[in-house]
Amino acid sequence: MAPRAEIVDGVKTFIPLENNPEILKLLCENLQASPDLKFHDIISTAPEFLQEYHFGSCRALIVLTHHPIYQAARSHVELTIPEYKGSGPIEPVIWMRQTIGHACGLMALLHALFNLDGGRYVSPGTTLAALRQQAISLGPTERAQLLYDSSFLEEAHMDAAARGSSRAPSPRDDNHHHFLAFVQKDREVWELNGGMNGPLLRGVLSQGEDLLSERGLELTVRDFLVAAERTGCNEMSIVAVTGTDGGA
């Protein structure tokens, strides 16, 4: 039986998730998402590596960074993001505030699932599809509460988090890492991070470019790679998200 979340300092808190393709795939299965979604470890952003493995068209990246890297790359950026107050189906992206402790891995995956191809990888008729539909109509505070109260999301996350390759920590353990997602939607590149004030438009790609192109990397993980080099910290991982047809 999967462990349960705990209340830590008055906040529901999960076990932190590992950022590896197997665990993300398992979490997708627990969420009843489409099996067409595929996950790939990006162990290098060097052109020769990306060309050799040819991951197909990548329109989402899930990134995990150690706190010093995150702070160096984003402390100044966070101050420029206005508080998000949007809701409804005409918003350019679905963004969700994170209010569950240690749930940033789940939030990164949900941001990818809810936004890629208009929610194409959220299987119709599932609990996840119902949550997405509810979330769209709600404002940020109510949307965050919807996720916070969901036993379905809690069970899906806790089961996947407990089955990682390393010893599963307690929800009470300190967590010095943070997840975020980059999602390409209609050529726009969005940084979706439930710990920020709202979604961040990073820029626009040209026809034929994806998130693993030179321009795509510049709009997504380049800041973090530079910060890792500057801080001397290498605790960072990148997972590319693609679909079976080469698109995502």
From TrEMBL:
The keyword DNA-binding does not apply. The keyword Transferase does not apply. SUPFAM superfamilies: Cysteine proteinases (SSF54001). GO terms for cellular component: cytoplasm. GO terms for biological process: protein deubiquitination; ubiquitin-dependent protein catabolic process. InterPro entries: Papain-like_cys_pep_sf, Peptidase_C12_UCH, Peptidase_C12_UCH_sf. It holds the Pfam family Peptidase_C12. It catalyses: Thiol-dependent hydrolysis of ester, thioester, amide, peptide and isopeptide bonds formed by the C-terminal Gly of ubiquitin (a 76-residue protein attached to proteins as an intracellular targeting signal). Residues 13-243 form the UCH catalytic domain. GO terms for molecular function: cysteine-type deubiquitinase activity. Keywords: Hydrolase, Protease, Thiol protease, Ubl conjugation pathway. PANTHER family: UBIQUITIN CARBOXYL-TERMINAL HYDROLASE (PTHR10589:SF41). Belongs to the peptidase C12 family. This is Ubiquitin carboxyl-terminal hydrolase. It comes from Aspergillus versicolor CBS 583.65.
